[in-house]
Structure formats: C-alpha cells, structure tokens
Amino acid sequence: MAWKLFDRKDAPKAKPPAEPPPPQGGPSPGCLVCGAGLAAVNAAPAGPAPCALCGASGAVAERCTAGHAVCEACLAGPGAAVVERTCAASEEHDPVALALRLLRHPRLSLGPGDHDLLVPAVLVAAWSNVRGEGAARAARVRQARVRSEPPVPSGRALARGQGAAAGAGTFVAVVAVAAGGAADGALVDRMVARARFIIGEGDDTLCVRRNALVAVLAAARFARDGLGAELPARGLACERAGKNPSCVGAGCPFNR
C-alpha cells in the first residue's frame, strides 16, 4: 500500500537533477489496457470490435494477444481527448488503476493539460461508479476537463506537483456541484493544500507520474474522510520505475 507516504515525517531528500526531466511518454510497453504484447491488427477475430478504452465499436487500430482492441481515436488522439474518452466510458472503481492504464499511453506525456486533467478525470469517473451514477459519468468528466483549462503553466511550478494538486481540487469542485451545491472554495483549497503538502513530503517531487498518483491517493483519502465516499484506491506498482531521470528507486512508494 502506498498510504505509507501519508505518514512519512522525515523522508530522506534525494538530490534532484539540475533540470526538470523530459516528458515521460514514449513507446507503449504493450497493450494500453493490460500491458500484454501486441498482435497483428488483422489477426482473428477480424472486423470491428469494441474499443477497450472508450467502448466505441469500430475499426481496430491495435490489438493485444489477450484480445483487447483499441480504436484509432484512442490510439492516436491528443492526450487530453484520450483521457476524457477513456474515463467517460470506464466502469473502474479504483482511480489509481485507471490512472495507470492511461499512463501506458504513448500520447500521454503528462505535460500541461494532460497532467491537470488526468487526476480529476480518473477521480470523477471512479466517484461516479462507486456511487452507482454511471449515467452521469461522461458529463462529469467533461466538466472536469473544462475546469482543467487553461492548464498550469509549464516549468518549475508544474515540476513540483502544482498541476496534480490543482487536479485534485478540480475533482472536489466537480463532485460538490454534482451533489447539488456550488463548488465549495474552502473545501477545494483544503484539498489542494493537502495534495501539495503530501507531494512535497516525498523525495521525488520532480517525477510527474509519481505526483499524479500521489494526488489521486490524497484525493481518495480526502473523499473517504471528508466527502463520505470510499474510493478503493490502491498503491499499485509504477511500470516506469527506474526508467526516468528523476526516478529515486526505492525512495518512491510506487517502486516495487
């Protein structure tokens, strides 16, 4: 469990790299759903198939050996559009699992925009599913995307996790409106401050993947303690551990 991060008092501080690391996209390690190897697109079964990410039925752009098919829009579309399509269709209850699925995508660099949207989108989708409100999921994810624009400026502020923390605040604002009220500014500010504090507690604050996952976990705990909803978020292993310049190895709670 990565909840240990929330209780760390005196975490050792690793020396950060002199410059922020490059975007953490790159080639997909395999299937965007399960990570399995890819099969030839024209392999059986042939013809249209439901996309494992957005659910739309159509021509297959990528298929894995386990049978998951991905459509062209989800494979080659802009990162923010892929996040919205996937979260709007997902029935996943665990926002961390949904985030890790999206982080396999080669288009998702976690730059400005992608970073700010990933956190609230997976949280809003999981929130809607846990509460049995799947019919409202797509509209809420769309609201999260609208609230996430314009993105936090790139550079030092983003590298320190402010985009991820802001995304956690966007989640709280969206669910407050969904509950029939207005976005509670004080509640949103508490969420953002909590996420920024926890992100800063670690010794790997330049890893934007880690920042996004920590913000999701922080928001899940906030939802449980302050919003009356249990999001079954689990600290799953990072699939990019050791592959990025800012990775601190065993110092990260997602490095297993």
List key phrases describing it.
single chain; 256 residues; mainly alpha; two-stranded antiparallel ribbon; 9 helices; 5 strands; 43% helix; globular
The shape, in one word, is globular
Helix/strand-derived category reads: mainly alpha
**How many discrete domains?**
2
Total strand segments: 5
Number of helices: 9
Give the strand order of the largest sheet, numbering strands 1, 2, ... along the chain: 1-4-5
Which range does the strand content fall in? 5-15%
If you average the pLDDT, what whole number results?
A: 76
- Fraction in helix: 40-55%
Low-confidence stretches: 8-28, 152-159
SSE topology string = EEEEEHHHHHHHHH
Please outline what is shown here.
This protein is mainly alpha-helical and 256 residues long. The chain has helices spanning 72-76, 79-89, 95-103, 114-130, 137-147, 156-159, 162-178, 185-201, 208-227; strands spanning 38-39, 49-50, 57-58, 60-64, 69-71. The protein contains nine helices and five strands; from the N terminus they run E-E-E-E-E-H-H-H-H-H-H-H-H-H.
Describe what you observe in this structure.
By secondary structure, the chain is mainly alpha-helical. The strands form 2 sheets. The chain has a 3-stranded antiparallel sheet with strand order 1-4-5. The chain folds into 2 domains: 36-76, no CATH class; 78-256, no CATH class. The protein is built from 9 helices and 5 strands. The radius of gyration is 18 Å and the shape is globular. Mean pLDDT is 76; it is low at 8-28 and 152-159. Helix 3 (95-103) runs antiparallel to helix 4 (114-130).
